[in-house]
Design a protein that fits this description.
The protein is an alpha+beta fold. Helix content is 40%, strand content 32%. The C terminus is likely disordered.
């Protein structure tokens, strides 16, 4: 019986799209060498929201939740990536338990950054608290619907 591949290496060239916002996905990527830009389409314009380098990862949300990609990721220069397929994350954590802690710390840092950005936006009064509360409530309802299916 053939063993299913749970991780592989890939090389992306400068400007190459690795994942596209809205596309389905179930792979997570760890940057082995090089860097990538992460962008989102906001009000019809593509906006770079992050640049990630060696040791960083992306795609974990699609891997963990099986939802479409929420951002587009492109290589900056030649970029070497480790691609984790389903099951590959668990295998990697078994081989290197500290990876799980590093991943959680990274995700916590991202959440803290987004929370600060949200606070700054609310402080600028560009978005009403009522509108934001409505958006959060809608997101929570959608999340609950998805976990029921």
């Amino acid at each position: 019986m053939a063993q299913k591949t749970v991780e592989l290496e890939m090389v992306a060239q400068d400007g190459e799209t690795i994942v596209m916002e809205g596309d389905p996905g179930s792979d997570m990527f760890i940057i082995q060498d090089g860097e990538v830009t992460v962008s989102r389409v906001i009000n019809g314009h593509e906006v770079v929201v992050a640049t990630l380098g060696k040791g960083s990862f992306f795609g974990e949300m699609s891997l963990l939740e099986s939802h479409p990609r929420i951002a587009t990721v492109r290589a900056v220069g030649k970029t070497k990536l480790l691609v984790l397929k389903r099951g590959g994350l668990l295998l990697k954590i078994r081989r290197d338990p500290t990876f799980a802690l590093e991943m959680l710390q990274n995700m916590s840092s991202r959440l803290r950054y987004i929370s600060q950005q949200l606070s700054d936006l609310l402080a600028s009064e560009e978005v009403s608290v009522e509108k934001l509360s409505s958006l959060v409530a809608s997101a929570e309802i959608e999340s609950l619907k998805e976990t029921e299916t």
